[in-house]
Amino acid sequence: MINRRQFMQRAGGAAAVATAAGSTLLAATIPPKATYTGDGLPPGQPETDYRPVIVPDGVKLPWKIVDGAKVFHLVAEEVQHEIAPGLKITGWGYNGHIHGPLIEAVEGDRIRIYVTNRLPEPTTVHWHGLLVPNGMDGVGGLTQHIIPTGETFRYEFVLRQHGTYMYHPHHDEMLQMALGMMGMFIIHPRTPANPPDRDFAILLSEWRIEPGASRPDPNAMTDFNILTMNAKVYPATSPLVIKTGERVRIRLGNLGAMDHHPLHLHGFQFRVTERDGGVVPEGAQTEEITVLVPVGTTRAIDFVADVPGDWAFHCHMTHHVMNQMGHGSLNLIGVKTQGIDTQVRASLIPGFMSMGQDGEGDMGDMGMPMPKNSIPMLGGQGQYDPITMGGMFTILKVRDNLTSYADPGWYQPPPGTLAVAATESELRRDGIDVTPKTPAQAT
Ligand SMILES: [Cu+2]
Predict the structure, then answer these.
(1) Which is the CATH superfamily of the domain at 35-194?
(2) CA 206 – ligand 1 centroid, Å
(3) Among residues of the chain, what percentage have pLDDT more than 90?
(4) Which fold has domain 196-443?
């Protein structure tokens, strides 16, 4: 067994080596892996021992210290949750939230988590990725009795690693997770070498929610119509507000049922610094723009946000940046549909919306009649035009001279840096001929 000081000396020494070897601004933002084997260190304290993560649209699980252990209380229960204005669901979550509160602790902490079951059926909690004694692993029937309705179980273990992890039920998984039961579990290193200035945590998931229904459908296997970041879809996803030049980490977890998500960042190249809680050695990191987050995994990306703007961050599967009404509609591209929707809605299918003759760019129009408890297929209004992205989409708002991290509004580009309609004289100057060549082009 090593004491705290020895532990810190060892970890700190390793971190110093990594920093000296680093050649970029991102050097050693995550210290190398050290596996703690003792009986527990003094509980790590926010701001002193770690810089807390930010959970956009989410909350953290409170804790208290009892006899040197951090004590948490998770309550599994039915929860009313708003995915976006206009769409409320009745799901299952923890402590009044969907998803469950993020659990944040420090390597070496002794953790005691009480789990109370207020669901109509049994549940358990599995600590996804954590190195725990077998009997604390939370697999119903295999490693423990399932937690009956009304009962409270105690989980207790020492955190032997750091990184980005998750938790979820391991009993009736398909149903309980489809209804929202999942959360993130962040363990900070005991000696953070060079923590990022802004450290965000986003849990990805997917749902089948029939327009008009409030209960997610756990039987969906392929046709998910709500794709969420921290259980919100754009335009309800809160922006990630960052000061120009800050070092940013975004931790991503995926506990959706079936789909992997290639998350794409605009405006910057990042490095994948952590996979499933494991530190990626700096020599193995490359500049990337899209990170695939498969089901059941976590990733952390790090970059310096050195260019101001409103930068999109979204899943690159086009069906994952659509909301409910974008799925299952008829393909009428090129068909003159004027009046069809109204007639079909009146006589055949309430809420019917065809794809438009000229594409779907106008489908985010909030004036369109919608089925009760549903949201438009596309996003919201931007400062220039409608934003045709919903679902798994959010915005990094990077700004100079911020005095707070409140939403700073839309980015105002400096003169001459905005794409605008080309003028006649510009076209002439550069020899660009836009004269129609065929009758079809002329219409
Ligand atoms: Cu996706």
Answers:
(1) Cupredoxins -  blue copper proteins (2.60.40.420)
(2) 9
(3) 72
(4) Immunoglobulin-like (2.60.40)
